[in-house]
Design brief:
CATH superfamily of the largest domain: NAD(P)-binding Rossmann-like Domain
CATH architecture of the largest domain: 3-Layer(aba) Sandwich
Radius of gyration: 19 Å
Number of domains: 2
Number of helices: 8
CATH class of the largest domain: Alpha Beta
Distance between the termini: 23 Å
CATH topology of the largest domain: Rossmann fold
Helix content: 25-40%
Number of strands: 12
Length: 278
């Protein structure tokens, strides 16, 4: 798909549109990270936040898909599971994860679903010096993002993945789906699994709002356990503060999004060499 360079005056009637959908949406950081990239690459496109209430997700998505200058959608909580049904074609990563976090309009007019949460999270771990291969990992949260991260950690070769969630059906869905790929390495979290993990990940929304309870107690973890959070705003979640106060290493949520940026550009057909000096 052709993406013309942005006019010097900024957004115009030719500007291509992308939206990030969530409920809530105030916390999303993708617009402030991707829009400067569009500008630096001279791409005439803009990413805007769209508050899509759970009960109206279908109306919002179908309306955007019928707008012919909308080329793609990014998806955040709590829509990653449900949004799969609005794609005509879903990737193997979506099928393995059970969720999608990006949809794009193809040249053929069909909509394609993809999931970069897991790949971005694992790339962020590796980039920060915490490769998960061969490690024991406990994942708290088996929703849309959690399922994607579980899939990526499994394919990255973790020695064991213990999955926790207050919704037992979610845990069973993730474990059953991934056990077919990695028999014996993925299990429902049991008592003691947090204390024996090398890496513990919060993939729940707990921490987005002031007053949220901690998704787990860092006091239950062994010395040296890495505590990772996928929440990006606030950067220093109460969980990460508590873990740091306990003397544990922490891994912030922004790493996941930062490593997804290039993936998004490729997926949406926006990649091009950066201008000299960009």
């Amino acid at each position: 798909m052709e993406h013309p360079e942005r006019a010097a005056s900024g957004i115009s009637g030719k500007t291509r549109l992308f939206a990030v959908l969530g409920d809530p949406v105030e916390q999303v950081r993708a617009p402030q990270m991707l829009n400067p990239v569009f500008t630096s690459l001279g791409i005439d496109a803009v990413l805007v936040p769209v508050h899509a209430p759970v009960g109206q997700l279908g109306e919002v998505v179908r309306g955007l898909q019928r707008s012919l200058n909308v080329d793609g959608l990014l998806v955040t909580v709590p829509h990653k599971d449900a949004v799969r049904r609005f794609a005509d074609v879903n990737s193997p990563a979506v099928e393995l994860a059970g969720s999608a976090n990006a949809l794009r309009r193809g040249e053929d007019g069909r909509w394609y679903g993809e999931n970069f949460d897991g790949a971005g999270f694992v790339a962020g771990l590796v980039g920060a010096g915490h490769p998960p291969t061969g490690r024991r990992v406990a994942l708290v949260g088996a929703g849309g993002a959690g399922g994607a991260i579980a899939a990526a950690l499994t394919t990255a070769g973790v020695a064991r993945l213990d999955v926790f969630d207050h919704d037992a059906a979610r845990v069973k869905s993730v474990v059953d789906r991934l056990s077919r790929y990695a028999p014996g390495r993925v299990a429902a979290g049991a008592e003691g699994a947090l204390g024996s993990a090398h890496i513990v990940v919060n993939a729940t929304p707990a921490g987005l709002r002031t007053g949220d309870p901690l998704p787990f107690d860092p006091a239950a973890l062994a010395d040296g356990t890495l505590v990772a959070d996928i929440i990006m705003t606030p950067r220093e979640t109460e969980l990460l503060k508590a873990a740091a106060a306990r003397g544990l290493p922490v891994h912030h949520g922004h790493h996941m999004l930062a490593h997804q940026l290039g993936m998004y550009l490729d997926f949406f057909g926006l990649s091009r060499p950066a201008p000299v000096g960009a």
